[in-house]
Amino acid sequence: MAGGGGEADEGTWRAYRGALVSSLAHDLSIMRSFGAPPATIDYADIWRQSARHTVRDVGRDRKSFGEHPPSISAVGTLAGGGRFSLAWHYLPDFPAYRETVRVVHGAGAVELVFPSPYLLHAPTELTVTTLDGDAERRVVRRSATEAFETQLEAFHAMVREGTEPRSGLPAGRADILDCQRILAAFAGRTGAVMGGEVGKLVGELTR
What we know:
Layout: H1 10-33, E1 38-47, H2 62-65, E2 71-78, E3 83-89, E4 99-105, E5 108-114, E6 124-132, E7 135-143, H3 147-161, H4 169-190, H5 196-205
Antiparallel strand pairs: 1-2, 2-3, 4-5, 5-6, 6-7
Helix pairs in contact: 1-4, 4-5
Protein name: Gfo/Idh/MocA-like oxidoreductase C-terminal domain-containing protein
C-alpha cells in the first residue's frame, strides 16, 4: 500500500484501495463540500461476511475487493459540530445500488439519494423535510441531468478555459487523509499492522 498502509495485509489493502479511496471518498467529499468534514474518527470497522443464500457472483469485482468484498463503517465528530456515521456495504444480491447522504438537524432533514452511476439519466433525488405546523412537509426535487456529462463539461472547462475545479489537489488530499484516518482507527482498535502514512497515524492514536 504505497504511501498508504505500507505492510498492510492484502485484504486490508483492498478495502482501502477498492472501497475507501475508490468509493467512500465520494461521501467524504460531499461532507467536505457541506463545510462539515470529519474532525475525529472515533470508531471504524472493516469486515467481510457472506450471505447464506448468495445467488449473484461478485465476478470481476474480486480484482478490486478480494474474494469477498468488505463492509466498512466509521463514526466520529464533525468539524462544524454534530456527529457523523458512514457505512459502505457491498451486497451482491441487494436488488438495486443506492447511495444516500442524509443530514439531520434540529428542524428537519435533507436527504440526497444517488442511483447507480451506470444507469444513464437515472434521477438523483433531493428530499427536504421540515415542519408545517403540526405536520411533516416534504419537498422532493429530481434531476435527470447526466452526471458523467456534467463531469466531462467541467473537465473541458478546466482544460480549455482554465476554470478552477470545485475540488482541487488540497481538497483531494484531505479526502485521502480522511480515508487513511478511518483505516488508522480500525488498525488502532484491532492491532492490524500498518506502515507508511497510515502507520504514522496509528502511532499518533496510540501515544
